[in-house]
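Quick look at the format.
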Amino acid sequence: MKINVVLVILIAAIISLSGQASLFAQDSSVVLEQFKKSFPQVKVDEFSKIDIDGLYEIVSGGRVLYYFPQKNYLFAGAIWTPAGKNLTNARESELLTKKIKEISLKNALKIGSGENIVLEFTNPDCSYCRQASKFFSEKKNVTRYVYFLFSSKDSEKKVKHVLCAKDKAKAYEEAMTGKLDGKKLEACNDEKAVMLLNEHKQTVSRLGLNSTPQFWVNGKHVSGANIPLLESLLKNETTK
């Protein structure tokens, strides 16, 4: 378990000052004003006091930061519980899930018609994405809504090929099982496919996602190809 040492030292310092409660009895609006003056380059989407004395949470572009006004310090790092829970990651996941509820599924690639709803952000050249795709392809009680996130020209060509295909679900499976690897794909300039590709890019940008795979299984967020967790979130799942 990786723990941000600086943040641990910070928390220890706060605890040592716990007897000086008056130091932290500041109005949040005053603290926010102090923060903005000290760190004008940091965009503040949300600002609130958390249940660690003297520590404030800043949400900036989906990222969670911590501010200690007593020393006028800004910290980036994870807060862990003794049980090993990463509270920072859990909070960022919660914020991302709120954003997810605002996006439309109409531009996603729909695969299947089962009762389990899976929103999937994937890359056809990502090995972990392929592992997770294989897992879901073996489930028949799932409806998948797929958005693409890619960073290379080769990946973009594969995504365009999928979005141009008459049978997009089949083309998607070909891409995710490696059948398109090394193939010279014909350039696709279909207007609707190009529009869909741009919609995928814009959706990913709005969400601030920068890694794959990412899933929401029946509303619950899973980062990475955590197959046991994905399995546990499926309701009444059956295999083909």
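Next, a different chain entirely:
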Amino acid sequence: MTVLFLLQEVWRALQLAFDMLWEVLWPLALGFLLSAAVQTVVSKKTVARTLGRPDLRGVALACGFGAASSSCSYAAVALARALFRRGAAFSNAIIFEFASTNLVFELGLVLLVLLGWQFLAAELAGGLLMIAMLAVVFKWTLRQRLVERAREQAEKGLRGRMEGHGEMDMSITEGPFLRRMLSARALTAIAHTFYMDLASIWQDLLVGFLVAGALAAWVPNSFFHALFLTGNPALARVWGPLIGPVISMLSFVCSVGNVPLAAVLWNGGISFGGVVSFIFADLIILPIVNIHRKYYGGRMSLYLLGVSYLAMALAGFLVERAFLALGIAPPHFHVAVLLSHPEWNYTTFLDLAFLAVAALLGWRFLTTGGPAMLRMMAASSGSSAEGHQEHHH
């Protein structure tokens, strides 16, 4: 009986994980497709050249280019170091890093489908607010001596994760825009970028859905209610943005993979601002803190951890206060996907349609040297600094 009960509980967790994946499959695919299309016409060399000055224009461009890039947190961190080594201002490289994980297409679409438009709006508004706060804090507290030490450490080229992906550049910059986008070369570039992005993030997605399914199935709401102080709404609104990033740090889940976890925390009673700050915190999970240490040294990694946490928590708190003042903060509700199973509706038809698109891109990826490039990307992540720094595909 005990074994049967355990199997039933494991099956329930897996079913919840699959239900969440099925609900957001098409927005994930659409987000990857849009991101791949943008990356096809935006050169990373061009990005590096435009981020050299830590002024308003540099910050705005870092936001824009970051939002148009991959959502993989590890690739974003690797690319930020590459941009820094190529001449981008350190503050702009870090802002690019935050924009590329918090303002990207796929994250916004998954939030919209899974949690609703208020969470999408809060993510965008809070992400811009957080980046603005970081820009101001960097301007007034980031000492040039610390940046110089970070550059010395960065030039050592110590390995992190997904560096081959961070260095990959398949952009097409010659010729009229429409001709570029409709060319066979563009289809190849989109297919390769689509599957490279997917390869870089699938582990985080898998872990995110499995952990979310397990928490939804096995952890009673009474535990979450006590953790999030739901009995005192005023205190919960302060506590939520403070505890949200801490949970994210300890979850080891980053990128879009933390959205299913956010849905479970929301069902458990965390505040609206707590959800927002939790989603922001994918760049302070412990593995990325360690990569920052390798890239820029211990002191800079601790500085980034401290200022990032404060910006995330404050942005989550302020966005919730603003939404409450405007009367658009969502009341607590149970996420529908955790209460239902897939059925024949628009979600299923959209999922099937985007699976067909993914299959077409997969055929193009397989027939144009994609697997070999994927192996090269993995090898680049394990190569020397000199080897992967100038390795473009």
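Confidence is low (pLDDT under 50) at residues 383-393.

See the schema section for token definitions.
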